[in-house]
Amino acid sequence: xxxxxxxxxxxxxxxxxxxxxxxxxxxxxxxxxxxxxxxxxxxxxxxxxxxxxxxxxxxxxxxxxxxxxxxxxxxxxxxxxxxxxxxxxxxxxxxxxxxxxxxxxxxxxxxxxxxxxxxxxxxxxxxxxxxxxxxxxxxxxxxxxxxxxxxxxxxxxxxxxxxxxxxxxxxxxxxxxxxxxxxxxxxxxxxxxxxxxxxxxxxxxxxxxxxxxxxxxxxxxxxxxxxxxxxxxxxxxxxxxxxxxxxxxxxxxxxxxxxxxxxxxxxxxxxxxxxxxxxxxxxxxxxxxxxxxxxxxxxxxxx
Length: 303
Ligand SMILES: CC(C)(COP(=O)(O)OP(=O)(O)OC[C@H]1O[C@@H](n2cnc3c(N)ncnc32)[C@H](O)[C@@H]1OP(=O)(O)O)[C@@H](O)C(=O)NCCC(=O)NCCS
What we know:
alpha+beta, Aminopeptidase, Trichothecene_AcTrans
């Protein structure tokens, strides 16, 4: 039996989190393509570890990103990190998004009496804004690519990016007009191979589900084959299938359902709430989930 505790990650957790993530994705075809042997500078997975650490340290300073760890006590090793996740919060209110087709970018001020000219002006403004944004994005991408380390296969990274965009495009209708930038998303989740199947992944995922409920918004996730059962069991729906650098990928979606918060879900995703709470299945109950904000840990006892 393991006592599992969840808390926000801290700077000192970064090396363990990076190691966990590298180990969790070691066999992933996608990661093999992005970090090929031929480009390695340091021995083993050292390049990847350092890259992950730098990325996580930067991420910890980003107020829109949320890093979490799950800890347990290991015999002879003391407290260890057995799982970690990175969540992205919805974009802030001043976010400008291309998908917001209904955005009234000029606040209605340009609308003519019959609406015709106003719509034309709006369209021209919108397309000018889009092309400016596209140029800015291209410049930004160029800068980001130039900053990437030499051991990362840049063309693989671009391909991976394109494939994700394809998957998102395929799923467009499933979003029912909701802007994905206004939803929560789980960027990555990794559980130590020795501690899988005991609820660590669920703890890390439920944290975001509760946040999304509080924000009255949904969640979308690009899932690996290993993540499928985890998200399904928590009530996510698979809305599209694609591949990224040879690895199958699935877009999982969960809309906000008023009155069906993470507190009330049965957690098996079949929608027939049995009223015993999402965290109680399999006899695993969170003992204390208060105080996560102020750094205290949520505890779950897993069989
Ligand atoms: C995916 C991953 C995070 C799951 O973490 P976990 O702690 O093992 O998940 P949980 O114990 O909370 O289990 C969640 C569900 O997945 C199922 N599950 C866990 N391991 C499984 C396995 N090896 N095969 C099939 N199902 C499995 C559990 O049974 C549970 O479903 P249930 O409630 O229907 O029984 C973990 O396997 C992992 O780190 N994989 C490598 C990295 C990765 O692919 N991350 C996902 C990116 S989207």
